[in-house]
Design a protein that fits this description.
The chain contains 16 helices and 20 strands. With 486 residues, the protein is α/β, with parallel strands linked by helices. It has 2 domains: 2-153, Leucine Aminopeptidase, subunit E, domain 1, CATH 3.40.220; 171-482, Zn peptidases (Aminopeptidase). An 8-stranded mixed β-sheet has the order 8-9-11-10-14-18-15-16, with helices on both faces. Strands 1, 2, 3, 4, 5, 6 and 7 form a 7-stranded mixed β-sheet that branches. Bound molecules: ligand BES, manganese (II) ion and zinc ion.
Length: 486
């Protein structure tokens, strides 16, 4: 998609649609004023009739308005002017974009930034790109069609470029998540990461099953064992900082399909398990943006890619695995596979010299029970590091909430035959016992685990985003990298 700045007025720009904004209580933005004057008060009349209220995300269309060059004007509600944050800016652009993408439209012009802060403009551009991307990758007749071109009212071209970079990173993650498991499996995911690395100049290293064996990744390999699709581990490196400065590490769960293994999932729970690589997809999307933005920091992204399936070689309940770190793990549920994959990837991240670690995983249904579908769970061994991440998420408008890591939870993963077991006692506190398991493999490094089982994937669409992969936490990771001081 082409994104460019325009100095043309909202009334005279040649476009399929012009998007203008209205704050709460019918307070119009300057471009909306221009349209109102050109149309001899069309918007004012709608405000008087209470058709337009300025409520966040409200969309009102003026079709073929007199005197306006564009085919239609979309008035979007922006809510309270003083409360406008990045979440609101993202949605204010995404909602009209999604609505307009219902038909093929080549050129949409956004006039939303009246003296907005840079961050708000970037968030809005990102939203405009996300809003018009649909999950119907394999429908001949698309429900949503991305525009060829977006124009943005007079603003700095570098802001638009940054916003576009964020938007394209979110799009990459969403596409990877939306691709079905017969298209995206460990090898093809690694190929996609390699293609991205080639485009952006990131360094990439791909471990195949031979290398994984040589590296003693017994925990990750056990999960992969039941599938005909061989596993991969991908390491992406961005060298933007000083040589020798210890990197920030992002680690992602990349289970390209989670059948549950022998602890087989019921059909209904399995339907959306192509999304179980969303953590890995988020890391790849964020790394793309970090490289394109040329952030002056050292960041590595590591993703563990496996398919959790059943054949005669599949790992079994009661099996004892040797993780790369040397710890032994008793498997009491093959559906608690994400932590087994991450155990080895976290160990590699530490060995690669990570100063601090963030992992992302669609790890537990229990996190959905605790926090609902829209909020990610944060769990940590280092409060200051978690606070840093939480404030980045807050700035980006991505919902996250911390869960406790009381030492008592660790007792639940004690095993009678091995160092630890891969499930807690019963289902209570399942998001936390999973995090306690992961903590065993970070060797005390400052670490935050983000359980994105809820927000990574939407069963139903939002007014501003199609259902399916959401790209949640791509922007937060980029924000953390921006603030990274080693
Ligand atoms: N991938 C699932 C978690 C999940 C559930 C992600 C719903 C997205 C939506 C994970 O591998 C899993 O199956 N977890 C089990 C753990 C249990 C066996 C301890 C779960 O949550 O039931
Ligand atoms: Mn599972
Ligand atoms: Zn899983």
């Amino acid at each position: 998609m082409k994104v460019s700045a325009t100095t043309e007025s909202a009334a005279s720009i040649q476009a399929d649609a012009v998007v203008v904004g209205c704050y709460a209580e019918g307070k119009l933005q300057p471009a909306a004023e221009t349209i109102d004057q050109t149309t001899r008060g069309a918007i004012t009349r709608l405000i008087e009739a209470k058709e337009i209220t300025g409520k966040t995300g409200e969309i009102t269309k003026l079709l073929a308005p007199q005197g306006v060059a564009a085919t239609q004007v979309v008035v979007v509600g922006l809510g309270d002017c003083a409360k406008l944050d990045r979440r609101a800016a993202f949605r204010a652009a995404a909602a009209p974009a999604k609505s307009l993408a219902s038909k093929v439209r080549a050129h949409v012009a956004f006039y939303l930034n009246d003296n907005w802060d840079n961050d708000l403009v970037e968030a809005a551009v990102c939203g405009a790109i996300a809003g018009c991307q649909g999950q119907d990758l394999y429908r001949a007749e698309k429900k949503l069609s991305a525009f060829e071109q977006i124009s943005w009212a007079a603003t700095d071209a570098s802001l638009l470029a940054n916003g576009q970079t964020l938007g394209e990173a979110v799009s990459l993650t969403r596409r990877l998540v939306n691709e079905p498991a017969n298209m995206i499996y460990p090898e093809s995911f690694a190929d996609a990461a390699a293609e991205m690395a080639k485009q952006t100049g990131l360094e990439i290293e791909i471990w195949d099953e031979r290398k994984l064996k040589a590296e003693r990744c017994g925990s990750l390999l056990a999960v992969a064992q039941g599938s005909t699709r061989p596993p991969r581990l991908v390491i992406l490196r961005h060298h933007g900082g000083k040589k020798g400065d210890a990197p920030l590490a992002f680690v992602g769960k990349g289970v390209t399909f989670d059948s549950g293994g022998l602890s087989l999932k019921p059909s209904d729970s399995m339907k959306t398990m192509k999304c179980d690589m969303a953590g890995a997809g988020t890391v790849v999307g964020a790394m793309q943006a970090i490289a394109k933005l040329k952030l002056p920091v050292n960041v590595i992204g590591l993703v563990g890619l496996v398919e959790n399936m059943i054949n005669g070689d599949a790992f079994k309940l009661g099996d004892v695995l040797s993780a790369r770190s040397g710890k032994t793990i008793e498997v009491l549920n093959t559906d608690a596979e994400g932590r087994l994959v991450l155990a080895d990837v976290l160990d590699v991240a530490v060995e690669q010299g990570a100063a601090k670690i963030i992992d992302l995983a669609t790890l537990t249904g229990a996190c959905l029970v605790a926090l609902g579908t829209d909020t990610a769970g944060l769990m940590t061994n280092d409060q200051a590091w978690c606070d840093e991440l939480a404030s980045a998420a807050q700035l980006c408008g991505e919902a996250a909430w911390q869960l406790p890591m009381f030492p008592e939870f660790s007792e639940q993963i004690a095993s009678k035959v091995a160092d630890i077991k891969n499930v807690g006692e019963g289902r209570w506190g399942g998001a936390i016992t999973a995090a306690k398991f992961l903590e065993e493999f970070v060797q005390g490094k400052p670490w935050v685990h983000i359980d994105i089982a809820g927000p990574a994937f939407l069963d139903n669409p939002k007014p501003w985003l199609d259902a399916g992969g959401t790209g949640a936490f791509v922007r937060t990771l980029v924000e953390v990298a921006k603030g990274w001081r080693g």
